[in-house]
Specification:
Number of helices: 15
Strand content: 25-35%
Structural class: alpha+beta
Radius of gyration: 25 Å
Strand order of the largest sheet: 29-30-32-31-33-34-35-36-37
Largest sheet: 9 strands, mixed
Helix content: 10-25%
Number of strands: 37
Shape: globular
Length: about 675
């Protein structure tokens, strides 16, 4: 699970480094298939686990620059591998061109014909290495050449761009000199040599490069959660502005002809992030676009090759696009005419040479579809887009709702319901990770949206609230989560969502569970400890349990980027903060817990180390409280390997069916059941 602070076209070092960045005196009842039987369970066909989470699911579908090939990620050998097929070919013609047992994280097409550049870490350790892959289009099977361009396994290499004027050179950020500093290098793909371009002594967390691969504008995240924006002037760095604590400024693009920077910012009195142009000669800023509804931060920007913005997008309950030129408005209108109201159209890229628009159509109940639109011919070309491996009609309804928190704050959330039932349902609350992200409407917008559909198909209502601390709704909404982890407004917003569903008659108050990953895992444990009468079953997926230990466990490489964490959680160097964090840490309130707990953890997790799950697992066991522990030794912050994903979902399904009474599958794949047994830890041995 990788989390970004804002979806904009920028080089964001910190989002890649942190990515976000998870029975004493009480008898817990267990429900059975016979005691709980809803209308939804009798009329809805259960979708098979392997269909909803199919090995045929594709990610990162991308057309080659010459328009001849389609590449994508798809499970093969139990891991995400790169596959290739000629444009116009069928999915059945696609061939895996990597054969790895540890997943590829991401890839881009190279400027060289028939070449791909990809990155991967080792079993979730988040030290990414960079590779090139060449292929012969006439002999795919026997022509693949994979070259490892980097060779230090304890260094994280972040590909920024391939240079326009020298395609044998890659601009790469790497913590090669110091673990806490991502310096800028040029990596020669022929000689594999790294040339230092900028030592990044200021420790930029975000930066934008010019065509030559040099940093032109950078942002430093300060320890008080303010940001300082710098520009390059005569080979030295000049401060342009320093924000107030909690204000955001993102570097989106650089317009070389105009010598201007394109920013997204909630600065100088702005609450929502707006599209801002910075004149690098005069340091004058002016707003180019803001949300006309004043609901949302700037979500996504499409730029021309010269850096001129063409489209600004905002996201409240669903995506809204605003074209910024008459030409862009005309083309976008022609594209959207091909789709119904059930699709959100995300513009991903506009090719400078051909003028082709690369778009993604996103839906609530099926995977994304990718297209290329030719404005000259009005031709919309689909990039594979196979039929889903499941019947979307068997999924439930997913809708945006709003409810009012205890103090009057409006909270936006997504509610996924079974297809044929909407009252007195067992309910799972699914708070998102981050917490500096937000949940979205689309099926493919995150790992936990298909999870929500999976459990709705089993008869549950699933609530995903965008509680305070979430991004996308303005800086005041985000900063309202500061020091509120565990017992403050963030958790109260989640609790209020449950009470809202109970008041609406949707939720059976005696059958409520909570589950989440990363921050969501912490929120689940906080729910178990601070509102113990509300939840009957709790799952923490890579969630921290002790805030002091969590803050002290960050690797050295993360230290310059922790200003938001200090503001939101606390600084372990400050005694008052340590006491406050202890008062908000679930592990210190084990005696409050009444519900059974399941912990799911990756052994290589650098963000929420294994220790976080094992500390609370041992504490629960010693208190004679029911606890189950799932540990994958080849995973990091969230499960990537296909068999680990599916086995953990089987564990979740059985756990909630036992304690909340929802339906579970009649038969599970024996291989996955056996694999789950290998992941299950005997807590008494810890």
């Amino acid at each position: 699970m990788k989390y970004n602070l804002i979806k904009v076209k920028t080089t964001i070092i910190s989002s890649l480094v942190l990515a976000g960045l998870s029975l004493s005196g009480c008898q817990v009842g267990s429900f059975t298939q016979k005691t709980i039987h809803t209308v939804a369970q009798t009329q809805t066909q259960l979708i098979a686990l392997k269909d909803l989470f199919s090995e045929q699911t594709m990610e990162s579908v991308s057309l080659s620059p010459d328009g001849e090939w389609i590449a994508f990620l798809q499970p093969h050998n139990g891991a995400n591998n790169i596959h290739l097929v000629r444009k116009g070919g069928d999915l059945s013609d696609a061939k895996p061109i990597t054969n790895l047992t540890d997943s590829v994280d991401n890839f881009v097409w190279s400027h060289h014909t028939n070449e791909i550049i990809f990155s991967k870490d080792h079993e979730g350790n988040e030290n990414k290495q960079i590779f090139t892959l060449q292929f012969n289009p006439n002999n795919l099977k026997n022509s693949i050449i994979i070259t490892n361009l980097t060779n230090k396994e304890d260094v994280n290499y972040i590909l920024a761009k391939q240079l326009h004027d020298n395609s044998n050179k890659l601009a790469v950020f790497a913590n090669l000199l110091q673990s806490d500093t991502y310096s800028l290098y040029q990596l020669d793909t022929k000689t594999h040599t790294m040339t230092l371009i900028d030592p990044n002594e200021l420790k930029f967390s975000k930066a934008i490069l010019n065509r030559a691969g040099e940093i032109m504008v950078g942002v430093v995240l300060n320890n008080d959660s303010s940001m300082t924006l710098y520009k390059k002037e005569e080979q030295s760095w000049q401060q342009v502005l320093r924000t107030q604590p909690g204000e955001q400024v993102e570097v989106i693009g650089y317009n070389e002809p105009k010598h201007t920077a394109v920013l997204s910012g909630s600065i100088q009195g702005r609450d929502k992030q707006e599209l801002i142009e910075l004149d690098l000669g005069t340091n004058i800023l002016h707003t180019q676009h803001r949300d006309p509804l004043n609901n949302s931060d700037l979500y996504h920007v499409i730029l021309q090759d010269d850096g001129q913005p063409l489209i600004a997008a905002y996201y409240d309950s669903r995506l809204r696009n605003y074209p910024l030129t008459e030409s862009a408005a005309s083309i976008l209108s022609r594209i959207t005419s091909h789709f119904g109201a059930d699709a959100d159209i995300h513009v991903e890229q506009i090719e400078g040479k051909t003028g082709h628009w690369h778009i993604t159509a996103k839906y609530a109940n099926k995977p994304d579809e990718q297209f290329v639109f030719n404005p000259n011919t009005d031709q919309l070309i689909g990039l594979l887009n196979p039929e889903p491996s499941f019947d979307p009609e068997q999924l439930g309804t997913r809708q945006s709702i709003n409810y009012t928190a205890t103090d009057g704050t409006k909270i936006q959330a997504y509610l996924t319901l079974p297809k044929y039932a909407n009252t007195t349902l067992p309910t799972i609350v699914l708070p998102h990770g981050g917490p500096w992200v937000r949940d979205k409407w689309e099926f493919s917008s995150g790992y936990f949206v298909p999870i929500a559909h999976y459990f709705a198909n089993r008869g549950y209502a699933v609530l995903q609230p965008n509680f305070r601390g979430s991004t996308g709704f303005g800086k005041h909404f985000t900063s309202a989560g500061n020091k509120q982890w565990g017992i403050g407004s963030m958790q109260q917003d989640i609790t209020d969502g449950v009470h809202y569903l109970i008041a609406q008659g949707i939720t059976d108050k005696n059958r409520v569970g909570i589950m989440g990953g990363s921050y969501g895992g912490f929120a689940a444990l906080a729910g178990a400890t601070f509102t113990p009468d509300l939840y009957k079953a709790v799952i923490s997926y890579v969630g921290p349990s002790d805030l002091n230990v969590f803050m002290a466990s960050f690797p050295e490489a993360y230290r310059p980027y922790l200003g938001n964490f200090y503001a939101a959680i606390g600084d372990p160097a400050i005694e008052a903060d340590r006491k406050d964090m202890a008062a908000r840490s679930p592990i210190n309130f084990i005696d409050n817990i009444k519900a059974p707990i399941m912990l799911i953890q990756g052994a290589n997790d650098p963000r929420v180390p294994q220790e976080q799950s094992e500390l609370i697992a041992k504490a629960l066991f010693n208190a004679q409280l029911p606890v189950e522990y799932i540990l994958a030794k080849n995973e990091g912050h969230g499960f990537i390997q296909h068999n680990n994903k599916l086995a953990s979902i089987i564990a979740m399904e059985r756990f909630f069916a036992k304690h909340l009474g929802g339906t579970k599958s009649d038969s599970d794949d024996p291989d996955l059941v056996n694999h789950l047994a290998t992941l299950t830890v005997d807590v008494s041995t810890l």
